[in-house]
Write a structure and sequence with these properties.
It contains four helices and no strands. It is an all-alpha fold and 132 residues long. The chain is elongated.
């Protein structure tokens, strides 16, 4: 049981580290794009809807979705000059969040190991046998 807990903890730690690493890399890339990203956002706003969307929705709904996307992109492009300098801080903040998550994971694993040990001691005291 302790081995299963350790393997599960390592697996979750690897997933958490991979997620934060990818997120930090993406944030670093977005921060490096700066002005180019703003032009890319405006290109996305001009992108026509693919014809296969008409198979799943009616034209009015598809156009409403497109208008919402265009509005969202325009709003994002409007705040991009203020967001871009702050993007340099996103990757370090993500790694701080990673550290808090890892501390929490290790604490939970330690509590789990403590509870497993107490179950074993109680089982030995009562004469019951738990399988590992």
């Amino acid at each position: 049981m302790k081995i299963a807990l350790a393997i599960g903890t390592v697996f979750l730690a690897l997933l958490w580290t991979g997620f934060i690493g990818l997120s930090a890399a993406l944030a670093h890339w977005v921060a490096g794009q700066g002005v180019d990203l703003q032009g890319g956002l405006q290109t996305i706003a001009q992108w026509p809807l693919p014809p296969w969307i008409a198979l799943w929705t009616d034209a009015g709904t598809a156009e409403a979705v497109r208008a919402t996307i265009v509005w969202s992109v325009e709003m994002l492009a409007a705040v991009m000059p203020w967001i871009t300098p702050m993007l340099d801080w996103v990757a370090p903040i993500l790694w701080v969040i990673w550290a808090f998550g890892m501390v929490g994971l290790v604490v939970l694993a330690a509590v789990g190991l403590l509870l497993i040990s107490r179950m074993r001691k109680r089982a030995q005291f009562t004469g019951a046998r738990y399988a590992d």
